[in-house]
Amino acid sequence: MLRVETAAPPALDKKHLELKKATQQFEGYFLHELLKEMRKTVPDDKLLGDQGHGQETFRDMMDQTLTDSMSSRGDVGIAKMMYDQLAPSLGDTPQGDRPKTDKKA
Question: What 8-state DSSP symbol labels residue 10?
Answer without folding.
Answer: P
